[in-house]
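Troubleshooting entry. Yesterday's outputs looked truncated, so today I'm pasting the complete records for two proteins to confirm everything comes through intact. If either block looks cut off, that's the bug. Protein one:
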Amino acid sequence: MRLDPIDSALAARIVARDERSGDDWHPEYPFEDELVPLQSLAAREEADPVFTLYAIRDDLGVAVGGFGFFGPPDETGTVEFGYGLIPAARGRGLATAAVAEGLRIAAAHGALRAIADTDETNLASLAVLARSGLTEIRREGGMVYFAREL
């Protein structure tokens, strides 16, 4: 598994499904939940080169999902992230590996704490966050909120 950063131009191509040689996108990529963040990134002239969106690539190098930061760390050093995989790529440990790599990237670039949330019915995501060392900090409105010191 590897994370490949996505810049504004690539985000625009992904949204438009303008796949080119070497892109290696799974036919289901991007999945529906990724479109809004990709559209937002595509609309920016410049994106943060580190605290941005990343394509999750499987062991064959095929883009099967996304990992992304909601921006750079805030004044407390906290960075928020999210992730997701196409259905065909789930259950293989890719999400856990992507979160581990994303947290490594964040810590290497000055983040002190990471936060994430997921729907309380999303048992797979709850397990990924727990395996990634995040601790549940609260439940509210059907969502579970997690944090981890980096």
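Protein two, checking that the full record survives here as well:
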Amino acid sequence: MNKLVTALIASAFVIPFTAFANEAATLSVEEKIEVNAPASAVWFNLHSFGDMGAWHPAVKKTEIVEGYNNKAGAVRLLTLQDGSTIKERLLDYKFKEKNYEYEIIEGVLPVSNYVSTLTVTEAKDGKSLIVWKGNFKRKDLSDNPVAGQSDDDAVKTVTGVYKGGLENLKKIAEGK
């Protein structure tokens, strides 16, 4: 009887830890850029959830495929320059606060459980600050991810997406 009780107690601790060990870590990326333009002008360029192609060079076309633009629940389909696609859902939209949050539903990026926010705030001397941050897991949740699906690959890809978009947005907002 004592062996049975000991085995049950031990399994109560081992099983949760084993399950936890097989789960990929939550990863984060945050990129910021200062823009020599007022926050309202910068927000004008990126406020439309339904038009990421207007400012992100990797996006060829954006279309709202469900719901209404800038309304929570709206789903956009991004067609990238290479023809691949990413589908995203708007979770929260705050026009006055110059902020929105969205998630990736499906797509080609090596991530899962991806949630991101874009925010524009006033900075010193009439400038603005754009912050793009996201939390996600790598797409391959196994202990031995396939090539291109590691934590480092996921972070590197998202960092590249953020930097490319922010740098182009800065050029557009500053009229360069």
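Both blocks look complete. Sanity check on protein two: The chain has a mean pLDDT of 87.
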